[in-house]
Model the fold of this input.
Amino acid sequence: MLYFSKLRILFITLFSVLFILIASSNLFKFDDNFFDKKINLGLDLQGGSYLLLEIDNEPVIEQKLQNLTTTIRNYFKEKNIKINNIKIDNQNIFFNVTDNDKQSVLDVFQDENSDLNPYYPRFKSHQLEIEDTGLNLKVNFSRQGLIKLKTSSQDQAIEIVRRRVDEVGTNEPNILKRGNNRILVELPGLDDPMRIKSLLGKTANLTFRFVTNDESDRFGVEKLKFENGLEEAMVSKRIIISGENLLDAQPKMDTQANQTIVSFTLDRVGAKRFGKATSTGIGKQLAIVLDGKIISAPVVRDTIASGSGQISGGFTFQSATDLALLLRSGALPAPLDIIEERTVGPDLGQDSINAGMIALAIGFMLVIIFMFVKYKIFGLITNVTLIVNLFILLGVLTLFEATLTLPGIAGIILTVGMAVDANVLIFERIKEELKDETNNILAFDGGYTKSRTAILDANITTLLAAIILFFMGSGPVKGFAVTLGVGIFTTLFSVYFIARLFTSIYVSKNKNKEKLI
Amino acid sequence: MIAFNKYYNHFNLLSSVLIIVSLLLLIFKGLNFGIDFKGGTLIELRASDSKINVSSLRDRFSQMNLGDVSVKKFGNDTDFLVKFENKDNKKNIIEEIKTNLDKSFGNNYDFRRVENVGPKVSAELLKSGIIAISLSLALMLIYIWIRFEWQFSLGAILALFHDVIVTLGIFSLFSLEINLSIIAAVLTIVGYSMNDTVVIFDRVRENLRKYSDIKIFELTNISINETLSRTIITSATTLLALLAIYFFGGEILKGFSLAMILGVIFGTYSSIYIANTVLVRLRVSQKTVLREDD
Done:
């Protein structure tokens, strides 16, 4: 165990130097790309905001089912099958058909090539499930159908969230999917997420619809409140144009009326429809509805064929800017709820870094002094190893551009405390060996060999705990698992290669010395 | 040689009492779950005006209809920790509080940290925390079973249970807060305690193979003594590192390092007085370890 070939010594030296260099790239600037990596600081250290958003898919499912009732009705109409009593209840569609038609309806739903009910061969499942309850037929989304629906609304939502966050212009936001109905937003450096939160909290569903008093409107009417919550108006359900028709929206100052407005440009389809509606609807009130509330309902005075217009509604400059931003980035497919928020101010982050570093320095000093007092020259070897170990650990974290959190720093300090364990096990074993063995080299060799299984077992158990923590833990705790886990490997490396190398050099030079350790 | 085995029965009794008391505490007093597991809102606030203190803050917050609000000093005199349940999960609660505080305190305060955990997330975090701890115990059990014999596995796992339950019992007794980092600490304790147990067990196994005529009662004592200096040194360096975190690592790591300190102490104790006594009680002998090697 004490013999090292020249090649191996070279390898150990190169390896250690390499990681020390990588680790020091956190402190110095290297031109080389390879050394340009840095350890990322977690949000708890650099300050920033962590938001977990959940997509509320209920309205999407309701809407899809609503559309589906029309589709089903029309589909079977062509086949001369009459659908009766179709209704939606608790995310199920119920309807009746005559007993003669029942089987053919069931066949349509269960046909793998059905265009009414898409089949996913990969999951061996249809989008919809149909069931004969005896009283009527019940149609609902299958498990796969729901998953598809959720992932697709998640895909759309994450795109919109990304656009909105980008528009606000924070540095390096991190936007990730979580499960099939959640979105994680990490905003480093942002200590007041109020604006982003309010932007993400809005669906931004914009529609232009006429105000009407005609209850028998072909499309139906609904009573909507104004933004101020005081007035109400009856608005037709017929949508003239919607947010999708917008090409651009910008906040502007209307100098004539001396108020802030949002001006918008429409795409070709939108412009055409807007032109037609404004030409036929002169004198009528056109309600501008955002997320179910009327922003304003100006009277149409002229035909607007230019495809651009403006929205006024008593905006401040800030609220006009935000509305324009929301309109530009598009509507969310479903409302988002912020179900978890963690925000750390930058000065607290800095305080945490300082406290962590002081704790690390003090912990390190205490351990080093203890080891030196206890083991003298071998304590010194352990201490040198400990320092190299720390650098290699930082080097590995840098290489993988891992995220360092406050618990992560605690993990490093803990690694310092526990890293001496392997060396202690070895040294104590050597001491025991020396009781019966006068040959120093044999005793040291025996000490290394016989302590190996205990060291391995002991480290694997800690590693198992770290692995579980990594997969089950979230955020900062994950950072702890990473440093603890990586620390085990670097510790084993430094104990078995670096410390052993020094030990072997020292022992071979003092072969005949008594009471070596 | 220290006669650890002289006190096996005494300490087994003590541990049983500790475990029972801890379990009673956990059942009847329960744990003081932080917002991570209970849901709610936490605000760490730093004041730059001496008018802002615990009572004036409590006063302000009680007028905001937030339900039960806890206001505590956090570290030094200018830092405060405000916690409340946020039962209705109001969306703009932080903004409302800011506007409210501005009226009384102007600009003389600063929110350093805001955490808001919804009921759904906290339930999930609790579940995954419990799963993580159970899973780690199970994995340790299996690992030791593979590496040693079942008697050893049982001893190690009992020692682990003891450490986890007693540490949590102390957290319950002093109503210390259980949050995500405490779960991390508990898992690390599991790793550490295991580590400690394994080192002694390794020696017990080695000695079992070496001496056929020594009874397990004596043999465990020999093994404990042989590994004792290592046990003491490693516990000492680990405790030194943890004490450094506890005293200098800032308020946020206090709970974590305290749990770890307790865990290391109990872990070291249980390796000696629980893990080994199980071997004695199960009458482990040379046959136990030789069987599989034949």
User: Anything to note?
Assistant: Residues 113 and 513 of chain A are 87 Å apart (CA to CA). Chain A has a mean pLDDT of 88.
